[in-house]
C-alpha cells in the first residue's frame, strides 16, 4: 500500500476524502470540525512594553482562558490574556524584571530565547520550576554590548514545553539598535501554529504528531489568520519575524516586494542582503527590511522538507512542513514616498574562523526505538542519552572558544539550539561556509552534520542545548552544558 504523507493527508482532509483515504494506514486524525477562522482583518500587534530609565518591570501571567485566536473566541493559553503575549522592547545594558505568575494547572517557567544573559539564579534559569498558583521573580541584566536583534520568550519546563508553546505561550523581545534605522514603520510578526476544534478548544496531538513534532492546522501571524497590512509605494518597513511554531519550519516569500535581510537571530550582516525568501526553523527569527512597490502581495509560508523518514517514514508518514500559502497580505497603494535614507553600515561581525579552538567536541542527535509500542516508544537522544537535569554533559571553561560538530544519524532534521551563547556556523557536512553566520538555532539535516564555533564568554553556570522541535526536547533530546 502506498503510504500517506502528512502533506498528502492534509490535502486529502481539505478535499473531504480523508476518512476514506486513511483506512488501514494507521494514521488517525481526529477529523470532525475544526475552528473556522475569521480571515483578513487588519494586522494587530501585541502590546509593546518599553524599558524606561534602564529597567523594564512587568508581571506576566500565564493562564488558560478564553482568548481571541484567529478572530474567534478560543480556549487556549496566553500571557496576560493574549496570544502572542506583549512585546518587550529593551536596550543593551537594561535590566528586565519579570514577575511570572503561574495560573496554569501545570508547572511552568520562563526562558528568554537568545538573550545573552546569565543562566543562573533569577536569570535565564531553565531549572526553575514555578508550580500552579506560584510566582517567580526573574531579574535579567543585559550587558552593555548586548547584540541588537529579535528574540523571544516562552516556557521551558521540561516535559511541558511543546504543550505550552503550542497552546499559545510566547512573545517577542526586541533589543533596539544603538540608532534607529531609517524606516517608515516597524512591525512585529510572530508566526505560530495551533490546532483548535470547532468549539475553539485545543486539540491534543497524537503520538505520531509528537514523534514528528506537532504542526497546527492554523498558521497564525500575531494570532490572526491572513491579516492584511497596508503601506504606500516606496516605503521601507522593518519586519521582526519570530518562528514561534512548536515544530514547523517556515519558508517565507513576499513576491512582488523587495526584502533585505539584516540578519537571523542575533546575527547581523555588515550590509542588508537582498533575499527572495527566508527559511526559519522553529525558534529562528529574522530581521527584514521590506521596500514596497505598488500592488498587492501575499506573504506566503511555503513547505520545507525536514528530512523524510526513509523506510521508517513509509510507515509513519513524511516529515514535511507543508505549503500553507498566504499567511498575510500586503496592500501597497496611494502616493509614493521619496526613498528613505540609506541603511548605515554595521560593524563587521566577530569571526571565530581565525581562532584556534581550545576544544573540539562531537555531539550526535539520534532517534531510536525506545521502550513501548508504536511512535510513543521512539527515543530521542543526544550522545545516546536522554536529558537528565542532574547530569552535566559538557563542561566548558568561561572565555574558551570551542568547536562543536553536531551530527544527526536520524532520518529527520533537528534544529539544534544552545542557550546564552550564539553559535557561528563554520562548516556544513564538512564543507566550510564562506560567510559569517551567527545563529542560536541551527538546523542539522537528516543524516548530516554542522560544525559551529562558540565563544563561551562572560557567563558561568549551567544551561541547556536541545532540539527546538519542542516535542523532541520534551522527550529527552536535550543536554546540560556548564561553564566555569
Ligand atoms: Cu526557544 Cu531552549 O528554547
Ligand atoms: Cu532558547
Ligand atoms: Cu528533533
From TrEMBL:
GO terms for biological process: cell division. One of its GO terms (molecular function) is copper ion binding. SUPFAM superfamilies: Cupredoxins. InterPro entries: Cu-oxidase-like_N (IPR011707), Cu-oxidase_2nd (IPR001117), Cu-oxidase_C (IPR011706), Cu-oxidase_fam (IPR045087), Cu_oxidase_Cu_BS (IPR002355), Cupredoxin (IPR008972), TAT_signal (IPR006311). The keyword Oxidoreductase applies. Keywords: Capsid protein, Cell cycle, Cell division, Metal-binding, Oxidoreductase, Virion. Residues 66-179, 210-294, 381-482 form the Plastocyanin-like domain. PROSITE patterns: MULTICOPPER_OXIDASE2, TAT. The keyword Cell cycle applies. This is Multicopper oxidase with three cupredoxin domains (Includes cell division protein FtsP and spore coat protein CotA). It comes from Blastococcus aggregatus. The lineage of its organism: Bacteria, Bacillati, Actinomycetota, Actinomycetes, Geodermatophilales.
